[in-house]
Design a protein that fits this description.
The chain is of the alpha+beta class and 151 residues long. It has a single domain, classed as CBS-domain (Roll). It is built from 7 helices and 5 strands. The chain has a 3-stranded mixed sheet with strand order 1-2-3. The chain has a two-stranded antiparallel ribbon with strand order 4-5. A hairpin with a 2-residue loop joins strand 4 and strand 5. The longest helix is centred in the C-terminal third of the chain and has 24 residues. The radius of gyration is 22 Å and the shape is elongated.
Length: 151
Amino acid sequence: MKVLDILRVKGNTLYTVQPDEPLAKAAEIMAEKDIGSLVVMEHGDLVGMLTFREVLVCIVKNGGEIGTTRVRKAMDDHPLTCTSETAMDEVRRMMLDRHARYMPVMDNRMLMGVISFYDVAKAVVDSQNFENKMLKAYIRDWPVEDDAQES
């Protein structure tokens, strides 16, 4: 299974923000859309990733307020990325190693989507459920051996 398989099921709705936008506006978008991350784009290029983790860290540093902070100051400016052809096992390893909950999918500098740890876990569970159904069907249809053939 590859990242492309997740994107096909998930769809291609993307939420982005520019690095010079107020962090408060970005947090409002994330809350309103019920999403945990925004891809930070500047001049058509990926320049960072903003998640609720970065927002909370910024609020704590500012004494409990967002204030006039810009997205650029809070964002992760070296986000973990993958391509649509990256194997699911590799994505799981990468996300676990970096404690990443969200990963932009880039193909030739073009943003194709964002996958979350939830998306990866769901894909694995769905794949295992399908495999279990196929194995159970196979076992149920197991051919009965004829005693005459065994002699």
